[in-house]
Design goal:
With about 300 residues, the protein is of the alpha/beta class. It is about 35% helix and about 25% strand. It starts with a helix and ends with a strand.
Length: about 300
Amino acid sequence: MAGAAKSRETESGAMRGKRGKRLAAVVIAAALVAASLVITLCGAWDNIFYALGYKENINDGNTLTAAFLNVGAADCCVLSCGGKTALIDAGDNLGKDSCVKYLRKNGIEKIDLAILSHFDSDHCAELENIIKVSKIKRLVLCSAFKGSADGESIVSSARAAGSDIEYKSAGEALELGKMTITLLSPTGDEYGSDNDNSLVCKACAFGKSILFTGDAGEGVERDLIAAGADIDCDILKVAHHGSKTGSGEEFIASVSPKYAVVSVGENNYGLPSNRVIKRLESHGALVLRTDKNGNIIFELSDKGISVRADYG
């Protein structure tokens, strides 16, 4: 009797083992099918995640998404359209990792074009962390800084990561899918300060435009007006975090933006200037600030411009 019971226990254990193996096989097969469906329907999932606010609409070929990121007292904007991505300034590396978070959140593993306006750390230092998560195909810098020791570490890191380094000046247009980025300044001889040597550029798509001014001052603004540069825009990235050194009366009147973005954080310089904010508002611009609104996300299309704040 004891032998028979032991035999039945052995058979029962064997059956349980077989059932366990069959269940594991079913689970693995189901996981493979689910993974296959996710891969097949990834475009649909992108739309679902976008609708829920988890991802931006970066793959829509009929929309330019411009994300002005909350990087503290620094500058950083990510432009996306039809799967193409451009980066205008990178922010600093003082603890605000908003750009790296944004790139990861949206699955951006390649930046087709990165432009650094100049080598002040609040515009470029975070690039060394960005290249660890997203490959930068082309890195565009102002020709005024060619051969300069400023930014040498960043340029070396980008080159080592496989980026093409290009030095450019006003008059060149960079095509990126349905987006065109035109360089407007420096227009002639180099200026006496790095801030004024900022690459000023204008991004256009679907009949809408964004003007990026780096840290350029009023002297640069006057030169742009005198040169007849195309500075009229829908969205203005306000120069130098809203400092009184830029955003002069004549310039704002010529630019006539519908929206003005001030990228600013806690600082000891009294930024942004109340006078600049009032000047922008007096010309009809809706002023948005990263310190108050978080990430500021625009969508530009043939249908118009939409904007929202994202604290994620």
